[in-house]
Amino acid sequence: MSILQKTLFPILFILVILSCSEKAINDDQALKTAPWQEITKKANGTTVNFMMWQGSPTINDYINNYVVPSVKEKYHINLKISGGQGPEIVQLVMGEKQADILSGQVDMVWINGETFFQLRKVDGLWGPFVKQLPNAKLVNMNDPFINTDFQQAVKGMEAPWSINQFAIVYDSVKVENPPKNLPQLTEYLERYPGTFTISNDFTGMTLLKSFMAEIGGSPNSLDGPFDEEKYNSLSKKLWDYINSHKKYFWKEGRTFPKEQSKMGQLYANGELLLVYGFSEGGIEEKVLNGLYPKSTRGYAWENGTIKNSNYLGILYNAPQKAGAMQVIDFLLSPEAQLKKADVNGMNSNTVLDIESLPSDWKEKFKTVAKRQYGPEMKQLEKNAIAEPAPEYMIRLYEDFRTQVIEK
């Protein structure tokens, strides 16, 4: 090989690689305006990797035994599931960006809130893509609980999948008058010492946001962009309240559960009489599975509890973006959303605008079986408050550790 050939070969090789990369980028951009038939054609026969939280048996059953075989049969898509939520997803994206990986491990992710915020900050999501989905027209994108995620405009960068509200959960046989505000919580703690605690996770921090909003004086006290001065003032009052009462907490406040699932176990065995959670408390599944007593009930905090949506996003370097779009569109279909709403299954509120559905689907949703034990979201909605800016959650995590756990 001549010197000229030795010089030209690596240059040509680099140009070919750059050309291929540029073509991949151009193809991805084209998907944002391509006819849906073309996207469906590109999606056919692909393998799509979906990273999601796998902590619920009913959610796992819905995905593995309904969604996976459905997209295989309908679109010849091989849907592969891997476990991971917020921090793992962000770490994956950051690692692949640092390594300049153009074709990543994961195509689509289940996210909301601070994860959406963090991924947007590092350009970790691909889009906007939602308007391309045929079933997106069945969602009321004017609903502020859908088009805004932790005070962030979604702008088509993630597709809504479910909507739910946080609820307080109690045993109606053992607790006659559950607390609905902080003064009443003080009375409860003194009457039922050791039966309440705060989990050091997303669920516990969500409860603290309701407490902080109450301290702020109104359901809307945390609305708007993150306010450092407001946070410092309200959080100081919050930590003062908790630290002055934690002697009445479970284990006298010397330790705090790391996960909401641990809270559920403590409630199930009677150690805790007051717990909380999303999906209107997640009561129905746990009662039907025999974990919670049938006397379990749920309600909203007087000043309000968080109502929000969770979403599906496509990563910036997803190798199968068309396949991910097809799967997400299926997950928004009336068929998949109705199956997801089954009270004996995933028991999840639909994001579809029922009134916009064809009459046969409208009737199916309106006659779907109702919950026997947990509250319907409509019973809580008058006490719904919006998620505050993601910085509140991020700061609460850090400060709960330093101002409460380590004190």
TrEMBL record:
Gene3D superfamilies: Periplasmic binding protein-like II. PANTHER family: PROTEIN YNJB. InterPro entries: SBP, YnjB. The keyword Cytoplasm does not apply. The keyword Signal applies. It comes from the Bacteria. This is Putative spermidine/putrescine transport system substrate-binding protein. Residues 1-24 form the signal peptide. Keywords: Signal. SUPFAM superfamilies: Periplasmic binding protein-like II. The lineage of its organism: Bacteria, Pseudomonadati, Bacteroidota, Flavobacteriia, Flavobacteriales. It comes from Pricia antarctica.
